[in-house]
Amino acid sequence: MKGSTKFCPECGINLNNLSKETSNQNKVEAESANSVFETEEPVIQKTTRDLGTRLEESVERIFKDRGYQTTRGQKIRGQSGQYNEIDVVAKRGSILLAIECKNYTEDRKVGIKEIRDFISKLDDLNINKGLFVTSSDFSSDAAGFANNNPSSKQVDLWNGSEFMEQYKKVMLGRTDSKLSIVENSLQPRGTFDDYSILTLKNKDRIITRRRDLIFHPYFIVEFNLREQFKTPDRQIHTLQNSGSYFVDGLSGEILYRNDDNGNASYDLDSMEKQIVKDLIDLSPTTIEVRHEPNSSVSKLDPSLNKKDIEFRVKTTIVNENTKIIPYEVKVSRERTDVKKFRHSPNINAITTRSRMIYVPKMEIEFESKANDYSRIILPASDVIMKDDIADCRHKLGLEKRHTFAVCEVCGMAKCEKDILVDDKDVCYCKDHAPTELKEAAKGESLADKFKRFRFGK
Ligand SMILES: [Zn+2]
Ligand SMILES: [Zn+2]
Predict the structure, then answer these.
(1) Ligand number nearest to the C-alpha of 434
(2) Mean pLDDT throughout 61-86?
(3) In the chain, N or C: fewer CB atoms in 10 Å?
(4) Which ligand is nearest to the CA of 404?
């Protein structure tokens, strides 16, 4: 350790890069637990509008870090003649991305209408790729519609947790240590190289732009609840329950519960489902991280501290263990009424013990001409959660097909049916193939067949 550079003895992360973030983060934590994604500057007043603007700023920052040029609040005239406002427009070379930001409170989800409106905007502006970012979450309808929309637009979604992940990673800066250790992490099964493999015919036309390994914090909060209470008829009851809650350490969202009453998931997307499964099935260990060329490794601190996480869990336990208990009241000598008593456990009757576990997540970004593709892997269970370059984008209703090659003009990855290959082995999509090649692929035209039929040889 030399000069002024400080490295955390635990993980090797440069503390100079971190200090700015953590000191302000503490301020924000002290102010309010709601403003989880604001880690940069102290916030004076946090109206929804302020936060909305800051969400856009933060998103802009993430894309600048990825080499994009960005513009905020740009009004662009569409094919309809109407002007559409795009929260953030990100451009890199010939890649164009329209980003919509919705700053909602935790309990309000982005619905199908907002996604539909965004896709019509993309349609009107003739932009092929969009990203929808929210500080909260997406309804499952909204997510389904984004994945399989009638315009076959590529619409990526970032919920609060994913946004935080990206933002924190940028704030942390690129780690430059050669080797670092992460304690209490699930073990990745493969390396960057294992997950960067492409099988397309002209894979030399594809650049691997970015490879990130992120250690995302989760909490497992074990609890015990035991309490005795009396109903108004002086009957003594015992309330007892124990189990554990799984919480996302970045968003503070409760993902899963397992207690004496059974288990329950809290509206999870496919990635969260897999993460919960991995947290149940796999055990954490201390892992060594190798920094490979053209890659970055980030270990993210939780946004909420252990105390706040446990408080959230306890509040949820109180709600979920609130019971209505019938009891009898003697009204007269002959008659008894059944009344209802509502009992909520005392929060102090709950004891908790929590541990933090890191789940590794890998993101690889490929680029070819005007198109970029992301691949997201959960290496602890070896599952590929998203792979934009794997399937040809077809209109709704057409079956998905594996991609065969990228068009060497536009970079679009297409299936074998949609790619034309010339005699020099150059691949084209149907929009960009030279006319002769298209003609040759069509074979004999109908007119030619007709002529032959009529006049013979
Ligand atoms: Zn093309
Ligand atoms: Zn196709």
Answers:
(1) 1
(2) 94
(3) C
(4) 2
